[in-house]
Amino acid sequence: MEKIRVEDAVGAVLMHDMTQIIPGQSKGPRFRKGHIVKEEDIPVLLSMGKEHIYVWNQAKGLIHEDEAAERLAKAVAGPGLTFSETKEGKVNLLAEYDGLLYASEEGILALNSIENVVLATLHNHRPVKKGEKIAGTRVVPLMVEGEVVLEAERIAHEFSEPILQIRALRSHKIGIVTTGSEVYHGRIEDKFGPVLRKKAEKLGSVIIEQSFADDDVSMIQAKIRELIGQGAEMIFVTGGMSVDPDDLTPTAIRSMGADLVTYGAPVLPGAMFLLSYLDGIPVMGLPGCVMYSRTTVFDLVVTRLLAGEKLTRQDIVKYGHGGLCLECPECTYPHCPFGK
């Protein structure tokens, strides 16, 4: 940084914003940081009371904050991300398409542990829309040692996956098995199916068939196999998820040879959730709260499955921190702490 006379500043790069005040008319930045001073700017600067200004002195080994921010953004960005215009030393990372944000908490911590580096992001596994801002990056000083940026780039490239990426949700063919004698025998109307159809459509998938089963293990199993035979790539089993004697869904799924990931989740609502895989196909047992609560454990898990993840019990257990829904009168998910 160098202090020079305004008259000698033509061609120099401003180091900070310069505010112009016109009484009764306006107050705001007249020249932005990074502006290259032109001949016609000299009288304006003098009228603003500026006889000396700070300009960028291109010292060896230092790089401007704009270049640093651009390099940091490129270092952390993976598929599905694009960049905003560089402005005032900051670059925003934007979702290139709808999907699920994957943010490496270890990577974010590693970069922010470097002095003068800033990377701020949204929470991991957040659903995002095309054009949504998901992160911002910059360095703290106006000029930074090039070695700082080189270290950040090196660390970012050490991770097997990009520090930030958007994974699109793949369209799946989904089958529903609705259990319960009260629905099977027509004593009450099924309310679960319409809810799941609406959720599936919103996520870009399609319900290919909904079958109904009595409280009978063999019948539940047969309906699941029939749907898989019809090409279902994911199965939702509704009803029969509590500990009542007639609630047999967990027993049916377990005994048909499915690999059980979890029966139970540290999430409210959704504690009685079940996740398993049958020949690689996700089979979920959905508790009643999925039918009447706006957002549950189902919404947290299904997006990750549609993004191509194969979840483990540890993945489900981690939801305990942030797994309490506040049940707000007006649901704002994902703009809330749930699942974070």
Short description:
This protein has helices at residues 41-47, 65-76, 105-112, 146-158, 181-184, 192-202, 217-229, 249-255, 289-292, 297-306, 313-317, and strands at 2-5, 18-22, 26-31, 52-55, 62-64, 81-83, 91-95, 99-103, 117-121, 127-128, 133-139, 143-145, 164-167, 173-179, 206-213, 234-238, 259-263, 274-278, 281-286. With 340 residues, it is an alpha+beta fold.
Features:
340 residues, alpha+beta, Molybdopterin biosynthesis moea protein, domain 2, Aldehyde Oxidoreductase, domain 3, Molybdenum Cofactor Biosythetic Enzyme, Chain A, 3 domains, 6-stranded mixed sheet, 4-stranded antiparallel sheet, 11 helices, transferase, molybdenum, MoaB/Mog-like_dom_sf, Molybdopterin molybdenumtransferase, molybdenum cofactor biosynthesis
> How large is the share of residues in beta strands?
25-35%
In terms of quaternary structure, the protein is single chain
- Helix/strand order: EEEHEEHEEEHEEEEHEEHHEHEHEEEHHH
Give the name of the CATH architecture of the largest domain.
3-Layer(aba) Sandwich
Instruction: Give the strand order, joined by hyphens, for the main sheet.
Output: 15-14-16-19-18-17
> Helical stretch count?
11
What is the CATH topology descriptor of the largest domain? Molybdenum Cofactor Biosythetic Enzyme, Chain A
Chain-averaged pLDDT: 93
Structural class by SSE content: alpha+beta
Helix content, binned percent = 25-40%
Largest sheet: 6 strands, mixed
* Fourth-level CATH superfamily of the largest domain: MoaB/Mog-like domain
Shape: elongated
Which parts are unreliable, with pLDDT below 50 for 5 consecutive residues or more? none
Number of strands: 19
> How many domain regions?
3
The rounded Rg comes to 28 Å
CATH class of the largest domain: Alpha Beta
Distance between the termini: 42 Å
